[in-house]
Amino acid sequence: MVSGLRGKRRRRIVAAAAAAAVAGALLAACGGGSDGRDTLVWYINPDPAPPADFQGAFGQAGIAERCSTDRYRIETQQLPGDSTQQRIQLARRLAADDTGIDLMSLDVPFAGEFADAGFLAEIPDDVASRLQEQGLEGAVNGATYDGRLVAAPLWSNIQLLWYRKSFADKTGVDPRQGITWAELIDSAEEGGGTVGVQANKYEGYVVWINALVMGAGGEIVTDLDQGAEASIDINSDAGRAAASVIEKLASSTAAESDLSVSNEGTVLGPFAGDSGAYQVNWTFIYNQYKSDEQVFDDLGWAPYPQTVDGQPSRPPLGGINIGVNSSSGHIDEALEAMECITSVDNQVTYAIETGNMPSSGAAYDAAELAKAYPADLLEMFRSSIDVAGPRPITPYWSDISTALQSTWHPADSVTEATPGRSAEFLREVLDGKRLL
Questions:
Q1: What is the homologous superfamily of the domain 160-314+396-430 according to CATH?
Q2: Mean pLDDT across the stretch 282-295?
């Protein structure tokens, strides 16, 4: 029996999922295959497409193949590409105690929600200790809820500032020495360039807002152990500093023309064009331009921009954690498989294949990874993960994110008053007085 906040949250998710759960029959637990082995079903987020000449199983499917044993084989099923849709599909099925899922790839902000609802099997203390010792601090923090590790970090995504070296040289700016958002926007304007960001009405925009707030020394919400009664702190100096950055970019010539619908993909083209100057984006960028020699040779990287001069930045943290379904009929086997899936060797292979960086510190010392990436870039990835600003690990993150999207979008509507309006709306949402 689930009680207290956990029980309320589980009932809330169950109610939201009821229509979908009733509409279709539950999938039965996977039993033994034709070879006598049990089958573990792992629901994965989509991987990048493999190179045309790649042989064998790629990405997470390759990990599943390597981690299958003489007692069980791991079968992968693909989730939707959008993280919000991934959450919805998994939550509907887990809320209905669906035994057809054994393992799942979880976007970082959903670990708290799923753990609080009782969807995730408890990780034994000895296993949790090994995973915590293996993982970078930022990655472990992103998989921890209520003081316990609730999922195993597989890979960690981190945002850097990517820039065209020729543009920086032209404007006399060296982003590697540290640069504020205001200086970045001014530099782009002066040189006739643009700054690529993620400002569509989606999770990626809230990722940017959260990074700006934390980079100014604040947080969107605190006292997360209070659940829906958490303290709403975005109406603060830090929140207003974040709003001023968005307002400055949105009102400048450095903003890309599609700012209100911009995402990780839309910024790629302008960056490679005549006005290419800067973009904040994830680790995949290094491999993104390899086919364009001119752009690749001109590609530079620097720490995430500062919200406030002199205040260390808190770059956005993303990635995937591996959770075990508490309703699985194969919990012990799934926990064993989870350790194999997130092993250092598999993290290294996965990083080389997909460009998604390891969550383990030891993985960054692997010779194979050093052949694939410049040493200073690997060190920047690793150090940025350790100082990252994760989104609040709370079962109410989905509500918080949607409320912020509703009040901070579009970017050109953001003013000094936006943090206050968003705090009022968010309080009403968490109190059940407003609907999203």
A1: Periplasmic binding protein-like II (3.40.190.10)
A2: 95
